[in-house]
Amino acid sequence: MFDYKRRIDELPKGSQILHEPLLNKGSAFSLKERDALNLNGLLPPRVLTIDDQKKRIMENFNNKHDDLEKYIFLIALQDRNETLFYKTVTDEIETMMPIIYTPVVGEACQKYGHIFRRPRGLYISKNDQGNIKNILKNWPNKKVDVIVVTDGERILGLGDLGSNGMGIPVGKLSLYTACAGIDPARCLPIMLDVGTENENLKSDPLYIGLTDARIRGDDYDNFIDEFMEEAGLTFPDAIIQFEDFGNRNARRLLEKYKNDYRMFNDDIQGTAAVTLAGLLSSQRITKKKLAEEKILFYGAGTAGIGIANLYTRALVEKGYSEDVARKRCWFIDSKGLVTRGRKNLSDDKIPFAHDHDAKEDLCEIIESIRPTALIGISGQGQAFSREVLERMAEINDRPIVFALSNPTSVSECTAQQAYKWTRGRCLFASGSPFDPVALEGKTFVPGQGNNAYIFPGVGLGIVLSRSNIISDDLFLSAADTLSSLVSDEELSNGQLYPSLSDIRSVSKKIAIRVAKKVIASGLTDIALPKNLEKYLDSIIYNPEYRDYI
User: Fold this and answer.
1) Which one of the listed residues 25, 70, 87, 172 is annotated catalytic?
2) 66-115 tens-digit pLDDT
């Protein structure tokens, strides 16, 4: 476990402490600390505060010419001074989140081998099978609260990026700290390199991963089994968050492990919860009941099915049958409308296949199904055309339009298009951020259905409660809490989610709600203090320098 509170004589001295990101304070080391730590002459003479340093960081950040340069600049800062990095990101979260995560992280992952500076986390390849235990033990911090792991097969909406996908676990864990106060010393990003099918990567001399074909079948499953077993033994208290696994593996691995490990899949459960929260917020405007929505999903992958399953679970909790709930959900996949007459449907699609004529054209399907909500989760940029959005506005006073695919380049439509083509009547949310839209004298603030509203708070609640498993009910609680935190003023501006500037407060409230749900459900073996809020305040990480003397 990383010890921030070591005695002065136990701390690294001289240049060594300047190269320890979790301990380094740069020019903020006091004169007494410089004497004690042999830093005299290694730093400029003036002592600065962390706020002074942040001013310099922001000045340099704003002078960068493009977003990828800003990303590289921030990662370099994280590598040398994590406290200052998190101080900057936490204080400027609305500015920094699009850079350290979506949409810029998508471009960063595509070019990861070319912008690589120094390794973060653990890289475990298929060639390490049989030795994963020893690799995990190489991690220097023995107390880990959260692991984010990917195999790089489906990075955002960009597909197979192999080991370049390490940018995703690194980015997600940065948000755990910035948004919820999880100690960065207790976060572990892991890349499982099982090969790649991306021919561009295979021919790239600067690609950082294996150029072998991806392993499949039993070889793949045995590898993942070994990883899960050894990770559970090495870091028994850790949450294991699966991120950006391919459709063929994401759902089945979740079902395989969820009752035996403290794990979840953010692409499935986190996406489902943030989407459900957006639907619940929408109903505060439309005055409809959740059961009155008819949802058309454009995209039938694991994320879309995950949303439909959580929506179904929410209605079942309200007393409806699963059959009734599922009939409110319709899907379009690569072959058109998912109907009972279709052959060779996957098992996860069958519950949402309904009696209907086969159709492929989105406008025709909208006219026939007459959905109240259109949710894009396809990775097909510009799929929601003007005609599609106008049709949604013709059949609904307040059409719900969620264009959730990431990054921005694959979003089904922009906020500007959604508001303009529905004449400002749509209730809009997107996966990546869009700027406010001015239309006919009114300014709309598009809601960002970012999983960062969900997974940090859920994770903090699990860390707090030490839940044995992470059930879907916890995500229902998170969705309900998130929706309740949207103010009436925010709703009036078209916002379906709270302002990102309040994300720490939001995560804290979700964490408390999740912890209480864990206790009520009997999912923990530990006793918790009565005042959870006070206890939470005492354990979360705040990015401020510690006095070493």
Assistant:
1) 172
2) 999 999 999 999 999 999 999 999 999 999 999 999 999 999 999 999 99
DSSP H or E run through 264: strand 263-265
Rounded to a whole number of angstroms, the CA Rg of the chain reads 24
Crossing angle of helices 503-520 and 167-180, in 10° steps, is 90
Instruction: Classify the C-alpha dihedral 333-336-337-338 as positive or negative.
Output: negative
Dump pLDDT digits (tens) for 446-467. 989 999 999 999 999 999 999 9
Burial of 359 (0-12, 13-18, 19+ CB in 10 A): middle
CATH topology for 99-261 is Rossmann fold (3.40.50)
Q: Does 143 participate in catalysis according to the annotation?
A: no
CA-based nearest residue to 169, from 183, 194, 151, 181? 151
Do 269-452 and 99-261 fall under one CATH topology?
Answer: yes
Question: What element of type H or E holds 272?
Answer: helix 271-286
Please report, for residues 266, 305, 472, the alpha-carbon distance to residue 269 in angstroms, rounded to integers and kept in the order given.
5, 10, 7
User: Can you give the residue ranges of every domain in the chain?
Assistant: 99-261, 269-452
Catalytic residue among 86, 101, 123, 419: 101
Domain 269-452 has CATH 3.40.50.720: yes
Residue 453: active-site member:
no
Cα–Cα dist 250/12, whole Å:
43
Contact 486, 281 (CB under 8 A): yes
In the β-sheet with 400-403, what is the strand arrangement from edge to edge? 336-337, 329-333, 295-298, 373-376, 400-403, 427-430, 447-448
The continuous run of DSSP H or E covering 437 comes out as strand 437-439
